[in-house]
Specification:
The complex is a heterodimer of chains A (about 300) and B (about 650). By secondary structure, chain A is mainly α. Chain B has about 650 residues and is an alpha/beta fold. The chains are: A mainly alpha (about 300), B alpha/beta (about 650).
C-alpha cells in the first residue's frame, strides 16, 4: 500500500510538471500581450518595455519557465500582474468556496444520477425507464449556463425559495450545486443503468434469487456494490469536468471561488493566476483519481493495489 | 423410498420463449415425477430444454422472454406455477435449492463466503446471526472444506473452482431442502475434482434423504449417479426409465445414438482404424447423425476436388504420401523415430514473473512449464493431458510462438531460437492452432470465408481468385458447403464453427496442428463427428496433431501417444496403450480412475479422494520446483521418478 502510494505520488508530480509546461507554453504562444494589459492603452513604448523587463517577460521561454519552476518548488506561484497580490493568497482565500461547491455538486450528481440509473435498470423497458433516460439525456446535453439561468428564474425569481446569488448559507449552495450536478447526474444515470443491467444478468444474481432472498437484498446487497465500481472510477475523471464547469457556474451565481478568479484572469491575461488555477485544478484531478483508486478495493476485494 | 407420494410432480409442462420470430417452445409437454430420496438425471445435449425445465421448477425463467405456457409443477401438495412471488421466495432455497454449472461466476465476488452462506440461512429461519454462523460452519464442514471457520472470511476469488462448487453445495444444503436441483454441477471442473464433488453429492443425499434432480450432458455422470434417467431432445422427453435399463436396452433411436457417441476409455470407438472407408461413404455417414442442424448441407466431396486438393498439398508439403501413409501411421505408435519429427521440444521452460514490493521487483514466479521435452512425428497424434493449471496450454502457446520461452523448439528441422523474424514467420506457417471455444475464436464481424482465407492473406499466398478456390475446397473438405462462405459466424452451430476453425487451420497446409481443447465445448454427438473429421484429415494430409485435452476418454480415442502433465512437468509419456492399459505414475492412474464410466453396472463404490487442492505452480524466487527425471520402463514408456 505504501509502495503503491509512493509510486502514485511520483506519477502525480510528473503529471503536474507536464501540465505546467504545456500551460506555460500555450500562454507564451498566446498573441495577447499581458504587458499591454497592465500598462494600459496610453502608455509609451518605453514604459511598456520597462514593465516587460521588470516582469522578466523579455527573457527567452526556457529561462522564464525555469524561473517559474524554481519558485514553484518553493511553493511560490508568483504575483498577480493586475491584482498586485500573491497568487497563493488569492487561491487559498477562494478555494474553500469552490471545494464546497464541488462537494455539493458531487452529492447532487451521485444522489440524482445513481438513483435514476438504479430505478431505470430495475424497471428496464418500462415507461419509467424511458422517461428517466430522456431526462438524463436532457441533463447531459443542456449547456450549464442555460440550466443555471433556468434554475435561477424558476426557483429564485419566481418561487423565491433560494437566493439569486452570493455566498454564505446552505441555501446559497443549492442552486449552483444543482446546476453543476445535473450534467454529471445525466452521465451517471446512463452509466449506472447499463452497469446495473449487466450485473443483474450475472450468475450470482441468479444464485441470490435461487436462495430465496428478497428483492431489496438482491438489488442492494448483491447487485449494487458490483454495479457501482465502474461509476467510482468515473468520479476521479469527473473532477476535471467540474473544473471547467466551475468557471461558468461561479460567474452565473456570483460564487466567490477560483472559477471566478480564473475568469477574471483570463480576460486580462494575468498569467500567474491562470497558471496557478490550472495547477490547482490539475492537482485536484490527480487527487480525485487517486482517491477513486484507493476506495475501489474496499468495495471489490479482488482489486489489489500494487 | 416410497413410491406412493412423489415429492415433485410435473405434468404436461411447456415453456415458451418469445424471440424475434414469435414464440418458440423450448420445453413441450413434459411430465415427470421425482420420488423422495431419489436421484433423477435429466440428460440431453445443448438446446434440449433441460436447464429450462430446472428454471421453470424454481420459477426463475429469464424474464420477460420465457414463460410457462402450460402444465403444472407440484411440490408435494403445493402448486408452484400459480404461486405468488412472495410465497415462492419462501420455497426457493428452503425447500428447493439449486446448484449451477459455473462455480466461477455463481458466487458474488464482493461478498465474503460467510456472508453469502448466512444470508440464506437468515432469510429462511429465525436463527440469530451467531447461530446462523454456526450453521454455516457446519455446512462447510459437511462439504469437507477444511478450516471452515477461517473460510467464512474469504472471498470467492481466493478459492479454486472445486472449492467454490463445494461452497455452492454447502449453501444449497445448509437448510436441508426437500429437492436439490443440480444443473451440470461438475461440467466446469477438472476430472479428479468432478469425481470428488459427485461423491460428495451422493454422500450428502444419502445422509439427508434429499431428492436430487441432476441435469447433465455427460452419460458417465448419469451412470454414476442416477436411479432413473430422462433423456431429452429438442424440449421433449425421448425416453425415461431406470438407469440400468436405459444403458442396457435403450428403446429410442436417439438414446442409442447418444450412448454410441459417448467416448469410453478402454473401448476405442474407432471403426475406421482397421480399414478406411471411401471418402464419399464417410461423408454420407456424416450427413445422417442428429443434433447438428448443419448436417443437411454436408455435400459429399467430389473426386475432382479431392484430387486437386491432394495435388496442391503434395506440392507444398514434404510429408509422406497420404494414400498409404494413413492407416500405417496409425499403427506406428512410438517407434516412429526413423522419420524426422515435425516438431521437437527440448527442455522447454515458461515462467511468468509476479511483481510486488516498493520497486515492483519480481517476488514470485509461476513455473508454468518446467523442462518439458517431446517430439511429434509426421502423421502422429500426441495428446497432452492434465488438469487446469498443469501447463498444457502454455506448452502449446510456446510452440505456436505466443509466449516467450526458454529451451529449444525445433519445427521441421529448424531451431526457432536461431532464426530471424521473417524466417521464424515462415516456419510458423507449419504450425497452426484450433482453439477451445468456437464461439470466441471467430471474429463475429467477418464472413467465415474471409476468416479461412486470412492466413493465406497474412502470408501473402495465392491470388485473390486462387484463394477463393482454395477456401471453397477447404469448406468442402471439412464438411461445409462453399455457399456458406458468405455467412457470418453467428449463423453456424458450435460444431460447424469448429469446422470453420479447422478449415482455417488447414489453409496453410501445416505440418502440425495444435488442437487446444478443441472438442471440449461440443455436444458428444457433434464431438464424435469432429474427432472423426480430424482423423480423416490426418490420413489424407499426413498432418500431425498436438491434441490438448483434459478428457481422458477423448484422448484415448484420438491419440497415438500420450503425455501426462502435472504442475508444469511431464510425469508419464508413452503410446496410448502403454499409458491407458498400464499407467505407472499415481497421477495418471488417478486421472483415469476419475473419469465416470458410462455404464451403471460398473459404478464405482468410492472414489479415492484427496480433499485437497492441486498445489500451485507459483513459487517464491529461488525455490525452483523439484525436477522430475523420466525413466524408461520398457518400449519407450517414460515414467517420472522423484529426484
Amino acid at each position: 500500500m505504501i509502495a503503491y502510494l509512493g509510486r502514485r505520488l511520483i506519477q502525480s508530480l510528473l503529471i503536474l510538471l507536464g501540465v505546467s509546461l504545456i500551460t506555460f507554453a500555450l500562454l507564451y504562444l498566446l498573441p495577447a500581450d499581458p504587458v499591454r494589459q497592465i500598462a494600459g492603452r496610453s502608455a509609451t513604448p518605453q514604459t511598456v518595455e520597462n514593465i516587460r523587463q521588470q516582469l522578466g517577460l523579455d527573457q527567452p521561454f526556457v529561462v522564464q519557465y525555469w524561473h517559474y519552476l524554481v519558485k514553484l518548488v518553493g511553493g511560490d506561484l508568483g504575483r498577480s500582474y493586475i491584482q498586485r497580490s500573491e497568487v497563493t493568497e488569492l487561491i487559498v482565500s477562494r478555494l474553500p468556496a469552490s471545494l464546497l461547491l464541488m462537494v455539493g455538486a458531487i452529492l447532487c450528481e451521485l444522489l440524482i444520477g445513481l438513483s435514476m440509473g438504479l430505478i431505470a435498470a430495475v424497471k428496464r423497458g418500462t415507461a419509467t425507464d424511458q422517461t428517466l433516460m430522456v431526462a438524463s439525456f436532457v441533463g447531459v446535453s443542456a449547456p450549464q449556463f442555460v440550466v443555471g439561468l433556468l434554475l435561477l428564474y424558476v426557483f429564485a425569481v419566481r418561487l423565491s425559495w433560494f437566493p439569486i446569488g452570493g455566498y454564505g448559507t446552505w441555501r446559497h449552495l443549492v442552486l449552483p450545486s444543482l446546476t453543476m450536478g445535473i450534467l454529471g447526474a445525466g452521465w451517471y444515470a446512463r452509466m449506472m443503468r447499463s452497469s446495473m443491467i449487466d450485473v443483474l444478468r450475472q450468475d450470482y444474481v441468479r444464485t441470490a434469487r435461487a436462495k430465496g432472498l428478497a428483492r431489496g437484498a438482491i438489488i442492494f446487497r448483491h447487485a449494487l456494490p458490483n454495479a457501482i465500481l465502474p461509476v467510482i472510477a468515473m468520479i476521479g475523471i469527473d473532477i476535471g469536468i467540474f473544473m471547467g464547469g466551475i468557471v461558468v457556474v461561479e460567474s452565473v451565481f456570483g460564487w466567490p471561488g477560483i472559477g471566478q478568479l480564473a475568469w477574471q484572469a483570463i480576460q486580462r491575461v494575468d498569467i500567474p493566476i491562470i497558471m496557478g488555477v490550472t495547477l490547482v485544478s490539475a492537482f485536484a484531478i490527480v487527487l480525485g483519481n487517486l482517491l477513486a483508486d484507493i476506495i475501489a478495493p474496499f468495495i471489490d476485494p479482488r482489486i489489489k493495489l500494487r | 423410498m416410497t413410491t406412493t407420494n412423489p415429492i415433485l410432480t410435473i405434468a404436461n409442462l411447456s415453456v415458451s420463449v418469445r424471440g424475434e420470430e414469435g414464440s418458440r417452445e423450448v420445453v413441450s409437454n413434459l411430465s415427470l415425477t421425482l420420488e423422495r430420496g431419489e436421484t433423477l438425471c435429466i440428460a440431453g445435449e445443448s438446446g434440449s430444454g433441460k436447464s429450462m425445465t430446472a428454471l421453470a421448477i424454481m420459477q426463475l425463467l429469464p424474464q420477460p422472454a420465457a414463460r410457462i405456457s402450460a402444465g403444472t409443477i407440484r411440490l408435494a401438495d403445493t402448486e408452484l406455477t400459480t404461486l405468488d412471488e412472495r410465497r415462492m421466495r419462501r420455497i426457493r432455497g428452503d425447500r428447493i435449492a439449486m446448484i449451477f454449472q459455473e462455480p466461477m461466476t455463481s458466487l458474488n465476488p464482493v461478498l465474503s463466503i460467510g456472508r453469502q452462506l448466512t444470508e440464506s440461512i437468515e432469510a429462511h429461519t429465525s436463527l440469530t446471526p451467531a447461530q446462523a454462523r454456526q450453521r454455516a460452519i457446519e455446512a462447510l464442514k459437511a462439504v469437507r472444506i477444511s478450516e471452515a471457520e477461517s473460510r467464512l472470511k474469504q472471498f470467492p476469488h481466493e478459492l479454486s473452482g472445486g472449492m467454490r462448487q463445494r461452497v455452492m453445495i454447502a449453501m444449497a444444503l445448509a437448510l436441508e431442502p426437500d429437492v436439490l436441483i443440480a444443473d451440470e454441477p461438475t461440467t466446469a471442473l477438472d476430472v479428479t475434482v468432478q469425481g470428488e464433488v459427485l461423491e460428495l453429492l451422493r454422500d450428502l443425499q444419502q445422509k439427508h434423504g434429499t431428492s436430487v434432480i441432476l441435469i447433465t450432458h455427460d452419460m458417465g455422470v448419469v451412470a454414476e449417479m442416477a436411479d432413473r434417467v430422462i433423456i431429452m431432445r429438442h424440449g421433449s422427453m425421448v425416453e425415461e426409465g431406470k438407469t440400468s435399463d436405459i444403458f442396457a436396452h435403450p428403446q429410442a433411436d436417439y438414446t442409442r445414438e447418444l450412448l454410441a457417441a459417448v467416448p469410453r476409455i478402454g473401448k476405442r470407438r474407432d471403426p475406421d482404424s482397421a480399414l478406411a472407408p471411401s471418402p464419399s461413404l464417410r461423408s454420407a455417414r456424416l450427413t445422417s447423425p442428429p443434433g447438428e442442424r448443419s448436417s443437411s448441407t454436408f455435400a459429399p466431396v467430389s473426386f475432382a476436388q479431392r484430387k486437386e486438393e491432394e495435388l496442391a498439398v503434395a506440392s507444398t508439403s514434404s510429408s509422406p504420401p497420404r494414400g498409404e501413409g494413413g492407416p500405417q501411421g496409425r499403427m506406428r505408435g512410438p517407434s516412429a523415430e526413423h522419420s524426422t519429427p515435425v516438431a521437437m521440444v527440448k527442455d522447454l521452460h515458461v515462467r511468468f514473473d509476479l511483481r510486488g514490493g516498493v520497486f515492483g521487483r519480481v517476488t514470485r514466479r509461476v513455473h508454468a512449464v518446467e523442462g518439458v521435452s517431446f517430439s511429434i512425428a509426421p502423421n502422429e497424434t500426441l495428446a497432452l493431458v492434465g488438469e487446469s493449471g498443469c501447463g498444457k496450454s502454455t506448452t502449446a502457446k510456446a510452440l505456436a510462438g505466443l509466449v516467450p520461452y526458454s529451451g529449444d523448439i525445433v519445427v521441421g528441422g529448424r531451431n526457432l531460437s536461431g532464426l530471424g523474424r521473417d524466417e521464424r514467420k515462415a516456419v510458423r506457417r507449419d504450425v497452426q492452432m484450433i482453439f477451445q471455444d468456437p464461439f470466441a475464436s471467430l471474429d463475429p464481424r467477418m464472413r467465415v470465408g474471409d476468416l479461412v482465407a486470412e492466413p493465406l492473406v497474412i502470408h501473402g499466398i495465392a491470388s485473390k481468385e486462387e484463394r477463393r478456390e482454395r477456401v471453397a475446397a477447404l469448406f468442402d473438405r471439412v464438411g461445409l458447403s462453399s455457399d456458406q462462405m458468405e455467412l457470418y459466424p453467428h449463423e453456424f452451430s458450435g460444431g460447424q464453427r469448429q469446422r470453420v476453425c479447422i478449415a482455417r487451420a488447414l489453409a496453410l497446409r501445416p505440418k502440425l496442428i495444435i488442437a487446444d481443447e478443441s472438442v471440449s465445448a461440443l455436444d458428444v454427438s457433434v464431438q464424435a463427428r469432429v474427432l472423426d473429421l480430424l482423423k480423416e484429415l490426418q490420413r489424407e494430409f499426413g498432418v500431425a496433431y498436438l491434441f490438448i485435452s483434459h478428457d481422458m476418454a477423448v484422448v484415448e480415442n484420438i491419440s497415438d501417444r500420450v503425455a501426462v502433465m502435472y504442475l508444469g512437468q511431464i510425469v508419464e509419456m508413452g503410446s496410448r496403450d502403454q499409458v491407458f492399459s498400464n499407467p505407472r505414475h499415481p497421477y495418471t492412474k488417478r486421472l483415469i480412475e476419475a473419469v465416470p464410466v458410462p455404464d451403471p453396472a460398473r459404478r464405482r463404490n468410492r472414489f479415492d479422494r484427496l480433499d485437497q487442492e492441486i498445489p500451485s505452480a507459483t513459487r517464491r524466487i529461488g525455490e525452483a520446483p523439484l525436477k522430475l527425471a523420466l525413466s524408461d520402463v520398457g518400449d519407450g514408456h517414460l515414467v517420472a521418478t522423484e529426484g
